[in-house]
Amino acid sequence: MTYSLSHLSDGVLLRDLSALVERDRTTTAALLAHLAEVEERRLYLPAAYPSMYDYCVRELGMSEDAACRRIRAARKAREFPAILPALADGRFNLSTVVLLAPHLTAENADELLAAAARRSRAEVQELVAERFPRRDRPDQLVPLAAGLAADQPTMAASQSPDPSCPGPLTSSAPARMAIAGVSGIEPLSTQRFGLQVTIDQDTHDKLRYVQALLGHQVPSGELGEVLDRALDASIRELERQKFGAASKPRAGQQGGRSSRRHIPASIKRAVWVRDEGRCTFVSENGCRCASRTRLEFDHLQPVGRAGESAFEPALVSEQIRLLCRSHNQYVAERVYGAGFMDRKREEARHRSSRRRSAKAKSQHAEAHERHSASS
What we know:
Low-confidence stretches: 144-164, 167-183, 252-258, 307-311
Helix content: 40-55%
Order of helices and strands: HHHHHHHEEHHHEHEHH
Radius of gyration: 27 Å
Structural class: mainly alpha
Largest sheet: 2 strands, antiparallel
Number of helices: 13
Shape: extended
Mean pLDDT: 79
Strand order of the largest sheet: 1-2
């Protein structure tokens, strides 16, 4: 296809442009319908992606912002199908759907969609502000680091991703995490990043205390180095909690616990190193899931079907693997059936709800006792 249009007459150029705009609207509506159906069927899972967001960015090549906006709009269009024909005939555009999405309910959808039809973005923003008013933003005084050049811009709030973005982008490289979609982090130069974050008083006090504790090692108190050392300490503790990581791990009591679900710490360490802290699910075309978050140790032979943990380190590669939660659930559904897993998840939600309720009652009772004692 040639993209040089200088040979077209004015009339043909305008006619073709109008046809392309109309086609684009129809394509956008069809695209959202397809995205919604793919997510409903969770077809991103067998393709080795932990979420629809990752699938859109990595497989379909969308930008992070485009993926967030389209997934959000697709979900809302599935809930309110009238959105799609309105997109196709030009009554709405994608921005309109994104602006309305947080406010649409079964009770107000018909009236609100009709009110927003054929309005500009600014007009829709005014409509939303009128129907769903928010409190005024308070005046703010933000201290800047000493030495910050007056003409050096800070990261504007508009650069922060929308909090309703469907999910983060994970990276396949062990040494780096994807920055796209992570609030307050901006690449500045090769292997250098700017970080901007808002913290509460308690976190501020902890940060100052860590600076004081590191006074000998980091006399300057430079926040980047303090943060690096604090993260090193946190990583060691989190790895110890997750799989008993230690610089000199103790020899485990193999078979010391009878639970078939128990995996000894030594085997967890070996599996984590072998799988490089990454989900091992591989699609039929050989694509491996890139997720490094919410990882779980999975039995290749399901416990529910007589699978047991491999207590011999030599058998680790045959018995245990890392899967992200999405793919662990997907594999379980293939083994036990979606209905069975839905019941299990519902039971787990009920147990969690009961525990939260019991904890809240206990805290309320303790507070009442303290109040009674003080009075």
